[in-house]
């Protein structure tokens, strides 16, 4: 309990950072509180690795800096990382058997930058294997449960991150978004998450899935917290990530309170077609009405190639994955088969044992679409349509300042609900894939509740580098609604 008797786990990052700075609570107390919560909620399956000694040592160092007056902006705030970010003090598995027990000799740039602003690491969070999935059921270790309904999925691939934040096991977490993996689990778990413009946050130390799409970002309960965290995470990393943009870090909190008067919100008609569940539609419509009350205008726009984003993404992402995952050969790191006849046999057995079904499926699709004779028909075509999808957004942004719509066609489905049908998962990505293919910033903001009392997120998409505008919109919605501060029962 803190002075105003709000339990520590109900504080936002901004509130907790303030109390730490005022020395009303120590970093060690905060770390202990969240370590205990994680332990008592272990059945959610959110964490893959914790190490109390490491966390408490970091917390003691944060307390020393707070005492010495040399504290960073997030000094002592506990956070946990999606297990796709490598960390030297915790194992890094990418949710795969291939990397079971693997320890990186270095920290990912995002992890390092957060640590430099004072963040204390609580542990590593469960995710789909190599971030391939939409339900966290592709983790090689165990699934994650949605804290709003334990029989449902938390979304994926950053499902551990979303569930941990929603259940208040940690004030905030990192996630990565290749085709929606920050936005969709944030929507399913009723929290706030933002994927910045591609290249804003360094990919160094983010275990690669599809390098032209992968982008890290924060997941927290409020837009203000996301803004604080994004400020710490972004910035150029020219020596380590050649695709990181040469755009200086900025203060993403600066325009949270800007007025929305006269702002034009583009509503893509393709996002409101037959496939959208009525409960999600009603919730999204209600959020759009709130924006009108805040002075914004709605403009109908068209993103005509929305449907094509599914085949395009599911060609390009597996193509890049098949190349990126070739490094897991049993030689350099990770799993190696025990019994084998020769080198080729060792490769084969290592990969057969180390990778799960979905990863193997994507490696096969990827190598197929890149192979001689099919490259032009699939991969090259997909690249051309990807460019058209990006151009469609630029057309749309002539008529609006930001775009809003649903994050996903439905609320979170039941664990096992999609059975063995990977296509059902792929189709559910339809509204998040377009912004990913275009490299645009996108976020999910809690907008209300749908079927079964499950959270529904509103997706906001901006033009390149307009993260601050998206955060402004999200923050304004959070001033007039309380969906982001509601708690799942029993939490
Ligand atoms: N669901 C998508 C996929 O399975 C997106 C995953 C992601 O963004 N990492 O590829």
Ligand list: glutamine
Mean pLDDT: 97
Terminal Cα separation, in Å? 15 Å
CATH architecture of the domain at 8-261: Alpha-Beta Complex
Helicity range of the residues? Answer: 25-40%
Can you offer a commentary on this structure?
This protein is α/β, with parallel strands linked by helices and 491 residues long. It has a domain at 8-261: Amidase signature (AS) domain (Amidase signature (AS) enzymes). The protein is globular. The chain has helices at 13-21, 27-40, 52-68, 109-116, 159-166, 183-189, 223-233, 278-293, 309-324, 343-354, 357-370, 375-396, 422-427, 433-438, 467-480; strands at 47-49, 78-82, 120-125, 172-177, 192-195, 215-220, 264-268, 297-301, 402-406, 442-449, 455-462. The strands form 2 sheets. It has an 8-stranded mixed β-sheet with strand order 4-6-5-10-11-9-7-8, with helices on both faces. A 3-stranded mixed β-sheet has the order 1-3-2. Helix 5 (159-166) packs parallel to helix 6 (183-189), helix 7 (223-233) packs antiparallel against helix 15 (467-480) and helix 9 packs across helix 11. The chain has 15 helices and 11 strands. 37% of the residues lie in helices and 12% in strands. Glutamine binds at residues 131-134, 157, 177-181, 209, 317, 429. Residues 131-134, 157, 177-181, 209, 317, 429 line the site of glutamine.
């Amino acid at each position: 309990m803190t002075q105003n008797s709000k339990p520590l786990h109900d504080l936002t990052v901004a509130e907790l950072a303030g109390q730490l700075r005022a020395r009303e609570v120590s970093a060690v107390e905060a770390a202990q509180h969240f370590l205990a919560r994680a332990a008592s909620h272990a059945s959610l399956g959110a964490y893959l690795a914790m190490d109390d000694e490491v966390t408490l040592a970091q917390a003691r160092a944060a307390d020393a800096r707070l005492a010495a007056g040399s504290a960073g902006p997030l000094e002592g705030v506990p956070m946990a990382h999606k297990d796709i970010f490598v960390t030297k003090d915790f194992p890094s598995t990418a949710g795969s058997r291939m990397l079971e027990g693997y320890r990186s000799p270095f920290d990912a740039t995002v992890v390092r930058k957060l640590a430099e602003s004072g963040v204390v690491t609580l542990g590593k969070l469960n995710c789909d294997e190599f971030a391939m999935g939409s339900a966290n059921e592709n983790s090689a270790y165990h699934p994650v449960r949605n804290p709003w309904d334990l029989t449902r999925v938390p979304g994926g691939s950053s499902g551990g991150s979303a569930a941990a934040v929603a259940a208040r096991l940690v004030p905030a977490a990192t996630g990565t978004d290749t085709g929606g993996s920050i936005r969709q689990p944030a929507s399913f778990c009723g929290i706030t998450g933002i994927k910045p413009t591609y290249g804003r946050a360094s990919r160094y130390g983010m275990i690669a899935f599809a390098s032209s799409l992968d982008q890290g970002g924060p997941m927290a309960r409020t837009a203000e917290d996301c803004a604080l965290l994004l400020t710490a995470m972004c910035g150029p990393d020219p020596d380590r990530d050649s695709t990181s943009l040469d755009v200086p870090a900025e203060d993403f909190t600066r325009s949270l309170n800007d007025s929305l008067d006269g702002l034009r919100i583009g509503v893509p008609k393709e996002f409101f077609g037959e496939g959208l569940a009525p409960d999600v539609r009603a919730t999204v419509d209600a959020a759009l009405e709130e924006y009108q009350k805040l002075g914004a205008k709605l403009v109908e726009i068209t993103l005509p190639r929305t449907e094509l984003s599914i085949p395009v993404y599911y060609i390009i992402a597996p193509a890049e994955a098949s190349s990126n995952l070739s490094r897991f050969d049993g030689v350099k790191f990770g799993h190696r088969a025990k019994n084998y006849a020769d080198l080729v046999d060792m490769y084969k057995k290592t990969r057969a044992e180390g990778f799960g079904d979905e990863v193997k499926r994507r490696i096969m699709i990827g190598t197929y679409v890149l192979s001689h004779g099919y490259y032009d028909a699939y991969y090259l075509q997909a690249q051309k349509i990807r460019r058209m999808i990006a151009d469609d957004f630029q057309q749309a942004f002539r008529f609006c300042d930001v775009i809003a719509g649903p994050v996903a066609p439905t609320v979170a489905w039941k664990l096992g609900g999609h059975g063995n049908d990977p296509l059902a998962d792929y189709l559910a990505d339809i509204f998040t894939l377009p912004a990913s293919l275009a490299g645009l910033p996108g976020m999910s903001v809690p907008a209300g509740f749908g079927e079964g009392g499950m959270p529904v997120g509103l997706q906001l998409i901006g033009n390149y580098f307009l993260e601050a505008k998206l955060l402004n919109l999200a923050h304004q919605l959070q001033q007039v609604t309380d969906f982001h501060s509601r708690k799942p029962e029993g939490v």
